[in-house]
Design brief:
By secondary structure, the chain is mostly beta strands. 11% of the residues lie in helices and 58% in strands.
Length: 132
């Protein structure tokens, strides 16, 4: 239940390069790097409700660990995949619908931060969140 709570973006590492590799156009990359993302996570056993709120959209994502679901990124990229818990880390394995390529995502609590890591085509980016 360590993930529970509201988290606000604090800083990014290599996020623009990651978005470029994902095929996000330059204008959306610039906006995406300053999206003021806030994530609220509610965990109940294996079920999660994640509310994402940014300058661009607000969306509720419900998933159960190990169960595949569909999701669209803020730029419209459609994915299918699932989240699993490995130790104290949420590990997401997703496949892009447009090109079949894999996207990995990780969420973990380190100290007082939620660190969200993405890996696509060998490019890794991190987003750091602080509790609100």
């Amino acid at each position: 239940m360590a993930f529970n709570g509201a988290w606000k973006i604090d800083r990014n590492e290599n996020y623009e390069k990651f978005m470029e590799t994902m095929g996000v156009n330059v204008m959306k990359r610039k906006l995406g790097a300053h999206d003021n993302l806030k994530i609220t996570i509610q965990q109940d056993g294996n079920k999660f409700l994640v509310k994402e709120s940014s300058n661009f959209r607000t969306i509720d994502i419900e998933f159960t660990l190990g169960v595949s679901f569909e999701y669209s990124l803020a730029d419209g990229t459609e994915l299918t995949g699932s989240w699993n818990l490995e130790g104290n880390k949420l590990v997401g394995t997703f496949t892009r619908k447009d090109n079949g390529k894999a996207l990995k995502a990780y969420r973990e609590i380190v100290g007082d931060e939620l660190i969200q890591t993405y890996v696509y085509e060998g490019v890794e980016a991190k987003r750091f969140f602080k509790k609100c």
